[in-house]
Design goal:
single chain; 460 residues; mainly alpha; 2 domains; 19 helices; 71% helix; NAD; mitochondrion; NADH_Q_OxRdtase_chainM/4; NADH4_N
Length: 460
């Protein structure tokens, strides 16, 4: 673990000391080396239990795919931000890279933590760099309101978790996952324990986000700069799913009766947010609402607590992270050329950017879960386990799948097909940097078709 964490920490002085001319290439190369080195964690996927490096940081088959995804995303964020940060003053460029690096440090320590309290502290620490990214480098004046929504939704959900963890420590005498995961399940019954369960889950359900407490997400996504949208969609939402999986193993007896309303709400959210996507005019808002829809399936898969549900949730989290991040990058390339996120004003781009249309096509198909992509594998496993839990879920999941296909095709057709509007006479051609960026998103997704056990080893 330290062989990745220490080079990531060293990226902070690199960002401040690199010559201005070589700032972006140097940090990009450094982060790419870290991302490549992180792939070595995947060697331990066949082992059950923890692969411990020290008493505070360790990896297992649940945290490893999420750790690799976090490391893989930093060079992609640097690559995506390079163009729109070029006109900023030098110090702000350096600060921007430092914020992205600090986010990666917090994420590595959150996913690798063996102490629940350390996980909680790192879970909360990711708020600070993300909030600065949204409020300082967001596109419009609404960014301040988006930052307030993001901060207070997350904090309001997280404070009950702090109380719940304190009570857990009083009752068990330890907060080490290494001990709690293999100890006897807690004997939970009564109203106080139900409130305790709710306290444990609320922070993660807000972070996912569950339909009903999701309003911060579209605002934060739409107002954030490209790197903020990428890290939010690809990794920060997955912190909620990871926390739920870790905590539910300790809350087992109570979950069966407490999870019913949340599963229903999550599946209802799949349909409602999918329907909202069908009538969106803002491209980034559409992609943001589609994230809420996909995370609804993940919440359902986790809460029914079957091996298939957990495995499907983990696969869908990784696949969705790569897909939605790629879609936000594509939306950003459109925005940099047309200076609008309104889809009707930036349509018919296939005629002038044909290769970019190919990337749009592959990303849209991944978003609607085309076989044999991992997105479909995750969705099918979750839907099958939900079907086994209750026959009635087929109505909600089936309708949600159809709506997902509808808005994914709608997004592709509106942005790419048709006649180019008259107000877009001269569009800048695409750059190799942008094609490399999308390739590095979609290549891992396509390679996972050949070796899916890298992301499903935990519950299999």
């Amino acid at each position: 673990m330290l062989k990745i964490l220490v080079p990531t920490l060293m990226l902070l002085p690199t960002a401040w000391m690199a010559p201005k001319k070589w700032l972006w290439p140097t940090t990009l190369l450094h982060s790419l080396l870290i991302a490549t080195a992180s792939l070595s964690w995947l060697k331990n996927m066949s082992e059950t239990g923890w692969t411990t490096t020290n008493s505070y940081l360790a990896t297992d088959a649940l945290s490893t795919p999420l750790l690799v995804l976090s490391c893989w995303l930093l060079p992609l964020m640097i690559l995506a931000s390079q163009n729109h940060m070029a006109l900023e003053p030098e110090n702000r460029q350096r600060l921007y890279i430092c914020l992205l690096t600090s986010l990666q440090i917090f994420l590595i320590m959150a996913f690798g933590a063996t102490e629940v309290m350390m996980f909680y502290v790192m879970f909360e620490a990711t708020l600070i760099p993300t909030l600065i990214l949204i409020t300082r480098w967001g596109n419009q004046t609404e960014r301040l309101r988006a930052g307030v929504y993001f901060l207070f939704y997350t904090l309001a959900g997280s404070l009950p978790l702090l109380v719940a963890l304190s009570l857990l420590y009083v009752s068990t005498g330890t907060l080490s996952l290494l001990i709690l995961q293999y100890s006897e399940p807690l004997q939970l019954s009564g109203l106080a324990d139900e409130f305790w369960w709710l306290g444990c889950m609320l922070a993660f359900l807000v972070k996912m986000p569950l339909y009903g407490v999701h309003l911060w997400l579209p605002k934060a996504h739409v107002e954030a700069p490209i790197a903020g949208s990428m890290i939010l969609a690809a990794v920060l939402l997955k912190l909620g799913g990871y926390g739920m999986m870790r905590m539910l193993t300790m809350l087992d007896p109570l979950t069966k009766e407490m999870s019913y309303p949340f599963i229903v709400l999550a599946l209802w959210g799949v349909i409602m947010t999918g329907s909202i996507c069908l009538r969106q005019t803002d491209l980034k808002s559409l992609i943001a609402y589609s994230s809420v829809s996909h995370m609804g399936l993940v919440v359902g898969g986790i809460l029914i607590q079957t091996p298939w549900g957990f495995t499907g949730a983990l696969i869908l989290m990784i696949a969705h992270g790569l897909t939605s991040s790629a879609l936000f990058c594509l939306a950003n390339t459109n925005y940099e050329r047309t200076h609008t996120r309104t889809m009707v004003l930036a349509r018919g781009l296939q005629t002038v950017l044909p290769l970019m249309a190919t990337w749009w096509f592959i990303s849209s198909l991944a978003n609607l879960a085309l076989p044999p992509l991992p997105n479909l594998m995750g969705e099918l496993m979750i839907i099958t386990s939900l079907l086994n839990w209750s026959w009635w879920t087929i109505a909600l999941t089936g309708a949600g799948t159809l709506i997902t296909a509808g808005y994914s095709l709608y997004m592709f057709l509106v942005t790419q097909r048709g006649k180019l509007p008259a107000h877009l006479p001269a569009i800048e051609p695409t750059h190799s940097r942008e094609h490399l960026l999308i390739t590095l998103h979609l290549l891992p997704l396509l390679l996972l078709i050949l070796k899916p056990e890298l992301i499903w080893g935990w519950a299999a």
